[in-house]
Amino acid sequence: MCDTCGCNLTPGNKHLAFKPVAKGATAVSVLKGLLAKNDDQAAHNREHFDRRGILAINLMSSPGSGKTALLEATLVALKDEFTCAVIEGDLETENDALRIRAVGVTAHQIVTGTACHLDAHLVHDALHQMNLDGVELLFIENVGNLVCPASFDLGQHLNVTLLSVTEGDDKPAKYPVMFRAADAMLLTKTDLLAVLDDFDPDKAETHLRNLANPAPVLRLSARKNLGMNAWLAWLREQLAAQRARVAIGQSRRPAIQSDGEKLHSASA
Amino acid sequence: MHELAVAQALVEQVEAVIHQNHAQRATLIRVRIGPLAGVVPDLLATAFPLAAAGSRMEHAKLEFAHAPIRVCCQTCGLDTEAAMNRLLCGACGDWHTRIISGDELLLESVELETAPSLTP
Ligand SMILES: [Zn+2]
Fold it and tell me: B36 at the A interface (CB within 8 A)?
């Protein structure tokens, strides 16, 4: 031990203690979002949408929660009122885009191979292969997965997360990253609530509030046409809000607040 | 596993840092991942060698900085610690809170070797 200050440095081990700042080495502070490249592309996509006055909605859920069935019913109800388009990213069935086109709506299928999520670059490539003239509402059906898609901003304005009543009402507690980012939570297949006794819609809502998420919780069944009006009214409201933002040159990001954004606003 | 995509993004960023600093290689990479970032540190640590193979950071150590979840209550104004699926105010129990840390996904710092290691 060093007699002067009591530290454990000796002339013999001194070189070891100072190794981290040795000649020829340097430490660089970066403090940059790991997904900065994706986020930049997402911001670019959002500019695309805003310039054209499009409202872009990212649909996320587990596999089999009824995203495509909800989309079909939604498009049938809205296609004469608004010009809609769909980007299909779900791999669950390869016929999703065909199902949407059968309704008479433009659909582009992203071929992702085995990817577990869409990213902003995939969506950007899709945008350039689509005719977006006059499109007002764009739905992006993400890969059926409650984990991976949550981390990747696509440039959408809103996240809509589906939870079917055949899943557990505690899913928001099990997948907090996904459900925290929801701008609306849809409880789907509610016609089956009568025959299921283990899914409590109120509990699902409580789990969502426990994530500090004020998003509306809408209960519906696309197949039995239950609760669809509230969902369609919400979409109309959101499109009106998007038009109001575009008119004053503003945009909106989903509920997710990435550090990138915080850092930008802090340094701006 | 989206951690591979995150690992590839990390390698790209560190590669840019090595280039900007005219360094030989990276020896230590520090990232800060909050529990609410949606990235599992263990899975990222597994994916990193695959993404870094053959690059100027393939022998770098990947280090994770701890990032506790803290929320700021909009009702009582206090900052408290929270659990991942209960982002409630620790003081008054209200759910009207805002995350102030715990959702970070940051490349914090990189240690570089700027001179060839063979020089004494
Ligand atoms: Zn409080």
Answer: yes
H or E stretch covering B61: strand B61-65
Closest CA to A154 of A146, A144, A142, A162: A142
A150 vs B38: CB contact, 8 Å cut-off?
yes
User: Sheet containing A25-33: which strands, arranged edge to edge?
Assistant: A25-33, B105-113, B25-33, B61-65
Distance from CA of A76 to the nearest CA of B (A): 34
> Average pLDDT of A146-151?
90
Q: What is the mean pLDDT of chain B?
A: 93
- pLDDT value, residue A97: 86
| Ligand 1 centroid, distance to A202 Cα (angstroms) | 23
The CATH number linked to A164 is 3.40.50.300
Residue A86 belongs to domain spanning: 38-247
User: Does residue A92 belong to any structural domain of this protein?
Assistant: yes
pTM exceeding 0.90: no
Residue whose structure tokens are 């089999």: A64
Q: What is the pLDDT of residues A22-76, one digit of tens each?
A: 567 888 999 889 999 999 999 999 999 999 999 999 999 998 898 989 999 999 9
Q: What ipTM, to 2 d.p.?
A: 0.88
Question: What's the CA gap between B85 and B81, in Å, rounded?
Answer: 12
Tell whether A259 is covered by a domain: no
For residues A185 and A188, give the distance between their C-alpha atoms in angstroms, rounded to a whole number. Answer: 9
Tokens of A233: 């009214």
Q: How many domains does chain A have?
A: 1
Q: Kindly report the CATH class assigned to B3-68+102-113.
A: alpha beta
Residue spans of the domains in chain B: they are: 3-68+102-113
Residues 56-95 of B with CB under 8 A from A: 71, 84-88, 95
The answer to whether the CB atoms of B86 and A210 lie below 8 A apart is: yes
Domain membership of residue A31 (yes or no) is no
